[in-house]
């Protein structure tokens, strides 16, 4: 079990980067996801128990890992992302051969890029929000409701406040009667 946990924290799908490129070259430069997965399993003689292993969600782990490998290869420019349901090598992908070390470097590069992007996006959103929203609007957003005011006070104050609200409503109702 310790071995499985250790592997899971190391992004196992990275080992499929090179085999995905190899499989696509063998398929003539492009293929459907199922064809690519089958070619990888054939090339590497992946045992059935690995091919049939499912994740908690019910998705086949091997297919999911190959799909993640494909995504990183797209980001790196080795695969084209123009046609849905077809994985296609770019000219760069055709001439690239990846070992696990190079694949790991690509993985770490994109993890870093996405982490920076998320952090920058958050900061940008905060700044944009502060610049676009007027301070009085923010202030209004934090105005408590009558129920919140009542919940924050002791019982005696709540009854006094409620009595005033009822008296005010009675006065308004009386004024309405006078108008008609």
Write the layout of secondary structure elements.
Blueprint: H1 2-8, H2 17-26, E1 30-31, H3 33-44, H4 48-51, H5 61-76, E2 79-80, E3 87-89, H6 91-95, H7 100-132, H8 135-141, H9 146-152, H10 155-179
Helix pairs in contact: 2-3
Quick overview:
The protein is mainly α and 180 residues long. The chain is 70% helix and 4% strand. α2 (17-26) crosses α3 (33-44).
Indicate how many domains the architecture comprises: 2
Q: Extract low-pLDDT stretches.
A: 1-9, 133-143
Share of β-strand residues: under 5%
The shape is: elongated
Give a description of the structure.
The protein folds into 2 domains: 2-119, Arc Repressor Mutant, subunit A; 144-179, no CATH class. It has 10 helices and 3 strands. It has helices spanning 2-8, 17-26, 33-44, 48-51, 61-76, 91-95, 100-132, 135-141, 146-152, 155-179; strands spanning 30-31, 79-80, 87-89. A 3-stranded antiparallel β-sheet has the order 1-3-2. The model is unreliable at 1-9 and 133-143 (pLDDT under 50).
Tags for this entry?
180 residues; 2 domains; Arc Repressor Mutant, subunit A; three-stranded antiparallel sheet
């Amino acid at each position: 079990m310790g071995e499985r946990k250790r592997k899971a924290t190391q992004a196992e799908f990275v080992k499929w980067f090179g085999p995905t490129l190899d499989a696509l070259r063998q398929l003539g430069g492009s293929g459907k996801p199922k064809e690519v997965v089958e070619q990888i399993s054939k090339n590497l003689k992946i045992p059935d128990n690995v091919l049939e292993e499912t994740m908690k969600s019910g998705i086949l782990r091997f297919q999911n890992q190959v799909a993640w490998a494909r995504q990183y290869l797209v980001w790196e420019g080795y695969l084209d992302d123009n046609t849905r349901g077809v994985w296609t090598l770019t000219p760069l992908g055709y001439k690239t051969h990846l070992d696990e070390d190079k694949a790991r470097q690509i993985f770490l590069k994109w993890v870093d890029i996405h982490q920076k992007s998320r952090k920058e996006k958050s900061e940008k959103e905060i700044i944009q929000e502060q610049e676009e929203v007027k301070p009085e609007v923010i202030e209004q957003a934090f105005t408590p409701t009558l129920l919140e005011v009542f919940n924050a006070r002791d019982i005696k104050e709540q009854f006094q406040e409620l009595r005033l609200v009822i008296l005010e409503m009675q006065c308004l109702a009386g004024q309405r009667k006078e108008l008609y």
